[in-house]
Automatic annotation (TrEMBL):
Localization in the cell: Cytoplasm; Nucleus
Record lineage: Eukaryota, Fungi, Dikarya, Basidiomycota, Agaricomycotina
Chief location of this protein within or outside the cell: cytoplasm
Protein's organism: Serendipita vermifera MAFF 305830
UniProt protein name: GPN-loop GTPase
Protein purpose: Small GTPase required for proper nuclear import of RNA polymerase II (RNAPII). May act at an RNAP assembly step prior to nuclear import.
E.C. designation(s): 3.6.5.-
One function term, GO molecular function aspect: GTPase activity
Record note on quaternary structure: Binds to RNA polymerase II.
SUPFAM superfamilies from the UniProt entry: P-loop containing nucleoside triphosphate hydrolases (SSF52540)
Amino acid sequence: MAENMTNEQRKPSVIITIGMAGSGKTTFVQRINAHLHAQQKPPYILNLDPAVTQLPFDANIDIRDTVDYAQVMKQYKLGPNGGILTALNLFTTKFEQVLALLEKRASTVENIILDTPGQIEIFTWSASGAIITDAVASSFPTVVAYIIDTPRTSAPATFMSNMLYACSILYKTRLPFILVFNKTDVQSHDFALEWMEDFESFQEALADRERLDADGEQTYMSSLMNSMSLVLDEFYKGLKCVGVSAVTGAGIKEFFTAVEEAREEYEKEYVPELKRMMAEREKTLETFKQESLNAAMKDLEVDKKKTWTGPGKDPRADQFMDVEEENPDDDDGDETYLDPTHLGRPYINLSQQPQKGYGDASKWPRPG
Ligand SMILES: Nc1nc2c(ncn2[C@@H]2O[C@H](COP(=O)(O)OP(=O)(O)O)[C@@H](O)[C@H]2O)c(=O)[nH]1
Ligand SMILES: [Mg+2]
């Protein structure tokens, strides 16, 4: 419930790691795990990558214990990506149980960390990823750590693609966001900071490239990038950036400082929006209930006039009220967990307004 947000007791921060394949998400989780262990504050870790072969940390909840990704591929005749996506979908059907476990541990841990599948789009563009993100974010202060492979993003065009991707995730989740420039042991992220702070220096870098790529007229790509970088300039404002090395441990302290700031942002910006959405949803539900009730009563009236000839009160009116009261119990049955309204908490889908689209899991198209 909404009141939980203002509980006296401090809730754990949830850190969701997101990033391109090979950016170092898993290594980063291992590093922050080691850092927190050293501080005698072991985190609670969820591994959501069904295809990882070796985890460098002990996950408290591991998707691989719930679904066998190889079996899923075989059974549904899927390729690797379809297999990972389907495994994640199947796991999401159990996410209510995961949340219950997290709630149980909430008083004893300070950090909950999510490691996501290698391929970024499996988490960021799937219904499961959105359900998981929104479910944790409506229960705990949640922060997205967007991991960037710094050495591999030093070309201006690659840098901008990566930033646009980050930008789209920020607007989709609306959660506090930390750009984590990883692998700074190989290359410093100073160039990135400079490009983000000084628009002209990025344009210069682009122009330099252009001279290398094609001498003469401005290419389509670079004119597109020029205008896109103006959009990004807005996105950079107020964004938290840290440079880290998941291998050496550099910058991890700064990362946790950024998490603290992001937590405040969550309380200040996300929670009010969450409450607003909850109130709106309650209002919609109330109106819907009232309308259905009115319609049903009207039907009953018509029906009564038509056929009720017996003495006294029409017993069918009571029948109707009974059904209305029993309805909540019906929901407790054999439900489809993938429908977020069954998550057992005020589920607010902030990323896909209006509240549509997740629906019945059985209607999902099979990936493949
Ligand atoms: N040099 C260096 N290599 C890293 C760092 N972090 C990760 N790597 C390497 O990057 C590769 C991909 O890392 P992984 O954590 O599996 O990436 P994921 O797919 O995002 O989970 C591995 O070979 C890691 O050893 C880092 O900070 N510095
Ligand atoms: Mg990984």
